[in-house]
Amino acid sequence: MPIDVTVPQLGESVTEATLTKWLVKEGDVVVKDQPLAELATDKADSELPSPSAGRIAKLLVKEGDVVPVGASICQIEAGTFAASAAPDAPAASAAPAAPAKATEPAAPIAVSQNPSTKGREPVAPSSSQGALGPLASPNARRAALEQGVDIQSVRGSGDHGRITREDVIRAGVEVPPRTEPPPSAASLAAQREQPRVATAPPAPSGGGLAQMINQGGGFVPPIPGTGFGSFKVPAYRPKPGDQVVPFTRRRRITADHMTYSKFASPHVVTVAECDLFRASRLREANKDRYKKEGMSLTMLAFLVVAAARAIRENPTINARVLDDSFVIFKDVNIGVAVDSPDGLVVPVVRRADELGVRGIVRSIDDVATRARTGKITVDDLSGATFSVTNPGLKGNLFGGAIINQPNVGILRMGEIKKRAVVVEGPDHEDQIAIHPVMYIALSYDHRIVDGVAANSFLWRVREILEKAEFEV
After folding, report:
1. Considering Cα of 29, then 32, then 34, then 36, what sign does the dihedral take?
2. Which of 33, 331, 339, 450 is catalytic?
3. Cα-flanking dihedrals φ and ψ of residue 147, to 5°?
4. pLDDT recorded at residue 90
5. Taking the CA of residue 268 as centre, how many other CA atoms within 13 Å lie in the half-sphere pointing to its CB?
């Protein structure tokens, strides 16, 4: 009996995956847990292991198809087969195709065996169609539903014809030309004789962006790369020496994420100045001991500990926005931005408020190492409720980071520099001293986080860092 191999749940917010590469072909003999295919999501890339030993009976999708979680991608004939059976598939494919085979699709599609469907022929997907419909991101599908756009009619501009959210928005705001006949002279005269009554336009009733667009005359968002209103982005004209760098899949995901975040969340940035004199002395006294244990005691670890404590006292910053409400999370899961060969990723330190400095250091070192070596998993990147980012050794004074959706806040470290500060002397007199100082900037979503809550949180983070009462 054939076994269906399905796309597993690859993360709490992942609804589909792109099959980027088949590692087997029809007729191959496989063993249990042998990688069958490479899957890519907006979180991470992973290999799909075989659930059983057997022989590949049928591949149901082709490379580049976007497949929802739970959908079948291939069938395995379970059992024990001789390894020599695997080469049969290439031999068969090398033979001339029989006339009956000429009408078969390049990538077979699973067809229901229900008698009511008997006689129906599977349709081969086009280059821009997956096995289960057009290639489209979850955001694009949601936007199509909100705006009443038929996604089948949208022309995709992404890789392999993939439909992006911008494509749907562009299709939604393109108003067809008016086809009604011009009014007659009689109708115009009747209109002139009717009394004029001033009426106010109906107020929006909470339908959001899609409703404002559909009402006409409302807000129409700018389209990246195209323009807004009468402004159009000038076309690029190649010049000698220019270098055109194609977007990688990870860069495209990052670009779409950042654009969406700036569009969806009204960002507010507030900055605090931190005197790191005590924290720096604590780090210098213990960093060699941590290094001998294979760990790095960094200022980032102190900041994550301080942020976790401050979140527990100011829980509104540990939330996400829903359609008509918001949820405050119980667990404090802090995402820490880490650079990787494929771009920036944000692995998660779970229940950070329950960890001390040592636990935070170990967690950050672990996820950072796996991110840089390409061994990060989807689970490592899922579930952040707040984020902290570090610009690295070549940082700058301070900067406002873009919120990592669906969080409502992100804390960014600035450059640590020695500065002249005013401190209180032994006799309570003011003195000037040279201390390491850092600016930390909080970007928060003003839809649910008010200035009082944001300032209270940032003030508490600064206080914890300056007191440096950490157990190391």
Report:
1. positive
2. 450
3. -95, 0
4. 43
5. 16
